[in-house]
């Protein structure tokens, strides 16, 4: 970040361009973090982007965008959950990073209130989990909602009921009481969960916050029930009667009602006392057993809190004083290039082991080529490139995630022999050319199936939980079988029994394999010859085709034969098959080209055909009620639906045997247009397609 233009030197045009870039970048980070529970950048990087955005907006207030990240809370809700509108909005917190920010906070409050007497605050650990609002009516837990975008949250009531720290009933509570707090996972529970996930060949979580968010936001409450979540109460939403007159008493009241409240919460007078408490909490951070990422200061007097009120996304009466990212310096010993399933070459820093925030770190991600690449021949810095070289003294950090990153390079300590790192243009695993397509930050090996790294990663993907999920054949076994030349492609899995079954000798001789487990493995493989279409499409491991898109494709085409015929006939960018493919709601041009390419590339195609010959692929059964008027029809939803989510409407339509498309064409039978419907409704009119509103749709679709 040291090489960006200072805000004071930005021209108006530069500022405008940068605000646009920041809005996009922060939006993407928000979605990855809040909606998908899979952050792509560290919290420290995220905070830096937000600060930069705020600084530019402060200097150029007229350039502030309508979609400015500083006016948004959280991110869009994930699909699949019901929505709950928060009676009282759930907001974010303003951040403080330095002691001056805390002094400013107090000064702003004093000037806002015109208040000169002593000011009391609570200092509370900022728990690094996700917030949850629990609505009790008559002392009974009725509803639980995530923060979502602050206005609307996801309905996770059944999941919340499985958390031991959340009482199902309260005695002596106000008639209506919304208790707010943080769902989190302890370090010990997180480590145990990841160990279980790993043993089962399932995905592991990057950090306790992701694990907590991913565990609470499950569509199946039984999964949540199996995850050790905890809850600290620290706030409230709608109330039929006040809890207390001060923040500290209100917290005590929540505690008496049966909630866990954080024992490190203290009352402090003025910034000095707050900073002392901050340091005291920071000193205990490593031994708490759960993650905290700062200390929250709140004006204690609730009457003053009411007077101070809110800005667009944050209260004026509170601030989150964040801990600095955990940092350490060490030597970069080597840069390795790893090759992934889709051929992506990822540089990894091998470090002299160093302890960062209590964890020994010996690897760090270097993201991609541009991140390492430094200066051009004139010595100018390429944007964002850090000029990282083998032998460098580098600063490593972990901030809210376990994958460590490089924060800085100390050029004064660079050994004279350290040479500019040359990113390979050939795959280190198979020697094929590695190319970078325009607009792609990633260089990819073009070896496809002949590349051993890609082949192994694909096999691992093929047997993963949401793909073929073959019992007894996890990532480790696949790797070992590949190494011994037993399997090279997915299809080989299905000839294992034929090749080794008779004697079983070789398999029996393998470490950890008895005749029994060999039999079990063959049985599991046989069972998986029968596979659902969506799993098969996902398992092929085609770039950009995730689980969701695989399901969309399966639902749309219904049978392997139909899917395969369409992919074979499709031409990128032209023709009816292409048009049909990209008209599927949720399938974009990037995904579509990747699919079509895979089916037209000779070796890939041959591998697919050989595989499918071993399988019996189940058709997608549409359980269409005979009398549904929309069965077999193609529908398009446009504009805002007010009574159900898009996801819900779509699921309902599909349950009735309809297809849902993303754009209007001559094949569209019916358009359901809510308020704000634009071009799609116009196009439907032009094509003479019938248009109905949401109420008419509900009448047509009936109750779910
Ligand atoms: N890495 C990423 O890509 C990424 C993306 C988005 C957000 N983030 C992280 O999230 C932060 C901003 O998002 P945000 O708005 O969710 O959080 P925030 O930092 O603005 O804080 C608000 C949240 O703090 C939590 N909290 C914990 N203890 C609390 C207490 N005692 N009192 C009140 N609130 C308490 C609540 O969940 C509340 O919603 C960033 O600073 C960053 O750390 C990271
Ligand atoms: Zn390769």
Automatic annotation (TrEMBL):
Family to which this protein belongs: Belongs to the NAD-dependent DNA ligase family. LigA subfamily.
Cofactor(s) annotated in UniProt: Mg(2+); Mn(2+)
InterPro entries: BRCT_dom (IPR001357), BRCT_dom_sf (IPR036420), DisA/LigA_HHH (IPR041663), DNA_ligase (IPR001679), DNA_ligase_AS (IPR018239), DNA_ligase_CS (IPR033136), DNAligase_adenylation (IPR013839), DNAligase_N (IPR013840)
Residue stretches making up the BRCT domain: 625-698
SUPFAM superfamilies: BRCT domain (SSF52113), DNA ligase/mRNA capping enzyme, catalytic domain (SSF56091), Nucleic acid-binding proteins (SSF50249), RuvA domain 2-like (SSF47781)
Catalytic activity: NAD(+) + (deoxyribonucleotide)n-3'-hydroxyl + 5'-phospho-(deoxyribonucleotide)m = (deoxyribonucleotide)n+m + AMP + beta-nicotinamide D-nucleotide
Protein role: DNA ligase that catalyzes the formation of phosphodiester linkages between 5'-phosphoryl and 3'-hydroxyl groups in double-stranded DNA using NAD as a coenzyme and as the energy source for the reaction. It is essential for DNA replication and repair of damaged DNA.
Top-level class of the enzyme under EC nomenclature: ligase
The protein's name in its UniProt record: DNA ligase
Active site (catalytic residues): 126
């Amino acid at each position: 970040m040291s090489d960006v233009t200072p805000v004071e030197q930005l021209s108006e045009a530069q500022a405008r361009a940068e605000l646009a870039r920041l809005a996009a970048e922060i939006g993407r980070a928000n979605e990855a973090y809040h909606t998908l529970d899979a952050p792509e950048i560290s919290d420290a990087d995220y905070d830096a982007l937000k600060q930069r955005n705020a600084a530019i907006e402060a200097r150029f207030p007229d350039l502030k965008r309508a979609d400015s990240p500083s006016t948004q809370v959280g991110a869009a809700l994930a699909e699949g959950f019901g929505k709950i509108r928060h009676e009282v909005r759930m907001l974010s917190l303003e951040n403080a990073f330095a002691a001056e920010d805390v002094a400013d906070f107090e000064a702003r409050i004093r000037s806002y209130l015109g208040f000169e007497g002593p000011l009391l605050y609570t200092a509370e650990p900022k728990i690094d989990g996700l917030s949850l609002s629990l609505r009790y009516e008559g002392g009974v837990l009725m509803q639980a909602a995530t923060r979502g975008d602050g206005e609307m949250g996801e309905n996770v009531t059944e999941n919340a009921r499985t958390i031991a720290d959340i009482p199902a009933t309260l005695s002596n509570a106000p008639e209506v009481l919304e208790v707010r707090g943080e769902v989190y996972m302890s370090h010990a529970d997180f480590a145990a969960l990841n160990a279980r996930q790993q043993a089962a060949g399932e995905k592991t979580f990057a950090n306790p916050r992701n694990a907590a968010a991913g565990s609470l936001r499950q569509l199946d409450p039984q999964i949540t029930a199996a995850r050790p979540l905890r809850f600290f109460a620290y706030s409230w939403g709608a109330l039929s009667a006040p809890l207390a007159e001060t923040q500290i008493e209100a917290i005590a009241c929540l505690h008496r009602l049966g909630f866990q409240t954080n024992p490190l919460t203290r009352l402090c007078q003025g910034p000095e006392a707050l900073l002392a408490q901050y340091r005291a909490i920071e000193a205990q951070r490593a031994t708490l057993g759960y993650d905290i990422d700062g200390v929250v200061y709140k004006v204690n007097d609730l009457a003053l809190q009411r007077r101070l009120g809110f800005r667009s996304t944050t209260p004026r009466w509170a601030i989150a004083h964040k801990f600095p990212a955990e940092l350490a310096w060490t030597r970069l010993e080597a840069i390795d290039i790893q090759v992934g399933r889709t051929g992506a070459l990822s540089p990894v820093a091998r470090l002299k082991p160093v302890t960062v925030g209590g964890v020994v770190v010996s690897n760090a991600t270097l993201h991609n080529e541009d991140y390492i690449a430094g200066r051009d021949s004139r010595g100018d810095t390429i944007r964002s490139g850090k000029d990282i070289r083998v032998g460098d003294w580098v600063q490593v950090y972990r901030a809210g995630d376990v994958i460590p990153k490089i924060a800085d390079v100390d050029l004064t300590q660079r050994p004279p022999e350290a040479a500019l790192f040359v990113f390979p243009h050939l795959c280190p695993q198979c020697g094929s050319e590695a190319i970078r397509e325009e607009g792609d930050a990633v260089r990819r090996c073009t070896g496809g199936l002949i590349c051993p790294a890609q082949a192994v990663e694909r096999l691992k993907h093929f047997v993963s939980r949401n793909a073929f999920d073959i019992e007894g054949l996890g990532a480790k076994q696949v790797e070992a079988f590949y190494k011994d030349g037993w399997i090279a492609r997915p299809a080989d899995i299905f000839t294992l029994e034929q090749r080794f079954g008779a004697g079983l000798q070789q398999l029996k001789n393998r470490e950890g394999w008895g005749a029994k487990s060999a039999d079990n493995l063959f049985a599991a493989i046989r069972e998986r010859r029968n596979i659902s279409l969506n799993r098969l499409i996902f398992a092929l491991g085609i770039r950009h085709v995730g689980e969701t898109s695989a399901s969309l494709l399966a639902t749309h085409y219904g049978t392997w034969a139909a899917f395969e015929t369409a992919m074979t006939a499709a031409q990128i960018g032209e023709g009816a098959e292409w048009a049909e493919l990209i008209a599927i709601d949720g399938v974009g041009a990037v995904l579509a080209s990747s699919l079509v390419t895979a089916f037209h590339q000779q070796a890939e195609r041959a591998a697919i055909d050989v595989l499918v010959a071993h399988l019996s692929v189940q058709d997608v059964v549409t359980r269409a009620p005979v009398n549904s008027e929309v069965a077999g029809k193609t529908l398009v939803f446009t504009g805002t639906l007010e009574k159900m989510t898009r996801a819900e409407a779509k699921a309902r339509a599909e349950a009735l045997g309809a297809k849902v498309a993303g754009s209007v064409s001559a094949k569209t039978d019916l358009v359901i247009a809510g308020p704000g419907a634009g071009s799609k409704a116009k196009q439907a009119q032009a094509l003479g397609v019938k248009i109905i509103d949401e109420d008419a749709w509900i009448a047509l679709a009936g109750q779910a």
